[in-house]
Amino acid sequence: MTLPKIPLLLSSLLLITACSTKKDIDIPDTNTTNPLVAVIQTDNPPPKKEPIKETLQELSGDFAGNYKLTEFIDYMHNYHEFTYKELYALFSQAQDTNQIVEPCKVRNANGSCVVQIRKGKWDRYKAMFVYERNIQRGVNFWNEHEETLNRAYETYGVPPEYIVGIIGIETAYGVNFGKKKVIDVLTSKSMLGNRREDFYTKQLEKFLIMTRQAGLTASELMGSNAGAMGYGQFIASSYLDFAVDFNNDGVTDLWNAQDAIGSVANYFSRNGWNSSISQIAVRARYKGNRFKRLKTGYKTKYSQYKLKKKYKIKPRTKLYYKGPVSLIKLHRASYDELWFGTHNFRVITTYNHSTFYGMAVHVLGQTVKQRRNGY
Questions:
Q1: Which of 221, 239, 297, 311 could form a disulfide with 243 if both were Cys (CB 3.0 to 4.6 A apart)?
Q2: Which among 102, 132, 170, 220 is annotated as catalytic?
Q3: In this model, does residue 31 exceed pLDDT 70?
């Protein structure tokens, strides 16, 4: 709406207070009175006039009438200087992903969806990522981007096989960047009562900032069911924190393989990767077929000496790493595999907090390396 006229000096002050701070701050309480406006109204009250309503575009589409989104649009306009026009246009096109039903690939005679599983939790998980076609994709990706992978190793100390492992797990080397629009996913999860709506609201904010900085079109980018993007499936906050312009073309683009390689390596480096530790995980030996004696998982840390002396658990091959190890259990159909995970294994799990994920990255990366070297 058009504000009543006020003195030039006070007008300038108001303009200054309305400027964006460019910082991550909470959405302001719209019920709080601006003290500067209160002073103006008290000391020099303007003449009473009928307010003239400013004509603004309204939300349409799946999110029409959503007050949370309207408040978010105000926030992005006031604190990050996005225009109302672009925001209303963007969100009026956004779709509610809760209404999108994933297709079923196999159905039985009564029409219900068939979920095909293999025995053994680890066997099922591993089979989703470590399979012949994906291994060959990894070899091809490594061959095509060998120079960039080597440069990332020299810059950040992360071996190529673990960057290759991450990208293979996340997107099958660019085959699957995700099937949903990121704007749809983040808007749905932040504005429609998701239990993690605060997290997704922050990701939506970062996503809009990210696309503006990179010169990308927010309405077109495709991602995962959680709004992750590019070869390495970074969420928006990770893009802003860890993504790098590794090909030096002036744009940080995670859909570009070179930038993605550098960004994954930078992520590991910033999260504590130790380049002097060459081993990630080593198979362990124990008595029996099922292991239940100790707590297992990527968060655990055990003395190798204690595991050997007290529990008779020791590595099957030479482990040069001398620090505390994570005890990793991989549940298979007829027995449990037990592994020792080093410090760098725990760094891998910062990418995805899962023991199985860390082992899948390790196994795929090592398998691709071996295939590429001819053994």
A1: 239
A2: 170
A3: no
170 is annotated as an active-site residue:
yes
Question: Residue 16's pLDDT is what?
Answer: 37
**For residues 160 and 139, what is the distance between their CA atoms, to the nearest angstrom?**
11
Residue type, 275: S
Helix (H, G, I), strand (E, B) or coil at 52: strand
120 pLDDT tier (thresholds 50, 70, 90):
confident
What tens digit of pLDDT does each residue of 121-169 get?
A: 999 999 999 999 999 999 999 999 999 999 999 999 999 999 999 999 9
Query: Strand 336-341 relative to strand 281-285: parallel, antiparallel, unpaired?
Result: antiparallel
CA angle 115, 359, 373 (to 5 degrees): 110
- Residue position matching structure tokens 């860890």: 242
Domain 121-270 is found in CATH 1.10.8.350: yes
- Choose which CATH entry (3.40.50.620, 3.40.50.800, 1.10.530.10, 3.30.110.40) describes domain 281-372: 1.10.530.10
E strands, the chain, are 180-181, 222-223, 281-285, 314-315, 326-331, 336-341
For position 359, what pLDDT does the model report? Answer: 98
Domain extents in the chain: 121-270, 281-372
CA-nearest of 229, 130, 127 to 178 is 229
Q: Rounded CA gap, 92 and 217, in Å?
A: 15
Q: Give percent of the chain with pLDDT exceeding 70.
A: 79
Q: How many alpha carbons lie under 13 Å from residue 26 in its C-beta half-sphere? A: 4
Nearest 5°: the CA angle 104, 110, 115 is 40
| Residue 226 confidence (pLDDT) above 90 | yes
DSSP state of 273: -
What pLDDT does 56 receive?
A: 54
In the chain, % of residues over pLDDT 90: 76
Distance of CA 125 to the CA centre of its chain: 20
Nearest to 159 by CA among 249, 273, 45: 273
